[in-house]
Amino acid sequence: MKHARAGTAIDLPPKLDRWVAEQRWFAGKGHSPVLRSIGQFSLPTGEAGVRIACHLVLDTASRFATIYQLPVTERAGPLAGVESAPGVGAPDSAAPAALIARTTGGDGRPRYLYDAVHDPAYAAALLGFILASGTIRAQAPTGMAASGEVAPGTPAPAGMTVVASRVLRGEQSNTSIILDVVDPDGRPGRPIIVKVFRVVADGQNPDVSVQSALARVGSRFVPEPVGAVWGEWQSPTAPARVGGHLAFAQEFLPGVDDAWRVALHAAKAGIDFSARAHALGVATAAVHRDLARAFPTHDSTPDVVNQLCSSMRERYRLAAREVPELARHRDAVVGVFARAQAAQWPRLQRIHGDYHLGQVLDVPGRGWVLIDFEGEPLRPLAERTLPDIPLRDVAGMLRSFSYVGATIAQGNPAAEPAAQAWRRCARAAFLEGYHAQAGTSPAGQEALLAAFELDKAIYESVYESRNRPSWLPIPLRAVQRLVEEAAVLPLPPVPLNADASAEAHAAAHASATRRKR
């Protein structure tokens, strides 16, 4: 392991708070950040007139003590126009959009501070740091450290050079950089995508740990990992050092569409999506099987079931405070969750955690490939890494198919019947493929699947309320439909020797009785 001391620190500008508040990855919607740097380390670069520093900043105005990663490049001259990845969102036309501030150096000359993800010098330095497997330790007082980690069996050879970089547009909570590379002989290599985690937390990021574990067990449904950056810093809330992942590099699959675009095109054109949905169900079940091989599985004890159901009830309670339209379904929602608590639960295992059509790529000659195993970004990291049941992922994909239908019908009532027919066929085919590959039966799982799909629709309601208010009617209509459909499901049998499940069964029965009156 190579060790190096950090270079000269880069001070953050006074107007940083305002700049961060305008970024898509800022998680504190609804309040203005008050940021304080809690550490930084410098990345070495061979480019003259450029310095690179990776800051961790604490939002002291957030009740969650959120920490953001802000890599910064300081240049003696303006950065030329930067490129964004084609086909995803609006183009990022030029470097001024990435300019954080213009300052004056100690020599009285101007300096330009940029969000480093848009700077080719940072992209090259970051990949080089990962492949070198080195460690950088910052000078006191912050004592921050960072280490590059190469994935076992990585396809990236030593001496790889970055010849171009561009930022992937449209991401909400992180920033990804696509790197075009050549080997030491100048031959083009496989492009690499490096995800820079904007919100960081103590502990392993599941996008790194889960995807790397899947690759180790030979899963063919995930991209090959290249490596990661691990950081260590002084906790701002406790007298302890903590650590977490700062970046993750993996193979980039160019010229592909995600499953959302593929499905939306099919739905708009009236193309039958059943075969593709069936194949997606097969891929999903295969990844769940590989996750069960890569990570420990656990019994669904009454205590665990109680905890998971309590979490769903608490998420609904908080969501109803933020989205008042949800409050009128209180009795029905309680009944759905109670029926789930009374059902027979399968073993717990690691899952994707934020599974939808946008998390799957359609790769020619390879089929469906699953990406982004970070889990739902609104949930704490500790919660996202807990074992769960695979049906939560299944429910997430079912909600995504429903979103396709709702998108087609939005503002066009005449398209509603065809859109809903497409939704029903896609959902049925996905479930058929999933259960065929998993060797399971949907019988007896109706109450669980209904609860997880409802939990997801409630989560979507909060997300749309915060980010896309005009889309809020879509999950609200889904909540209405789901509670109505769940009300006619049969009550699950009461498991023997399960007092907690029996209590939940009684609560579900009482809730259903109230609605019939």
Model description:
The chain has 517 residues and is α+β, with helices and mostly antiparallel strands. The chain folds into two domains: 2-255, no CATH class; 258-516, Aminoglycoside phosphotransferase (APH), C-terminal lobe (Aminoglycoside 3'-phosphotransferase, Chain: A, domain 2). It has 13 helices and 17 strands. It has helices spanning 16-21, 120-132, 206-216, 259-269, 274-294, 302-322, 330-341, 381-384, 391-409, 416-438, 446-467, 473-487, 499-516, and strands at residues 2-5, 35-43, 50-59, 67-75, 99-104, 110-115, 134-137, 145-150, 161-167, 174-182, 192-197, 199-200, 225-234, 241-251, 257-258, 360-363, 367-370. The strands form three sheets. Strands 1-7-8-13-14-11-10-9 form an eight-stranded mixed β-sheet. Strands 2, 3, 4, 5, 6 and 12 form a six-stranded antiparallel β-sheet that branches. Strands 15-16-17 form a three-stranded antiparallel β-sheet. Strand 2 (35-43) and strand 3 (50-59) form a beta hairpin. The radius of gyration is 24 Å and the shape is globular. Residues 1-6, 83-94, 494-502 and 512-517 have low confidence and may be disordered.
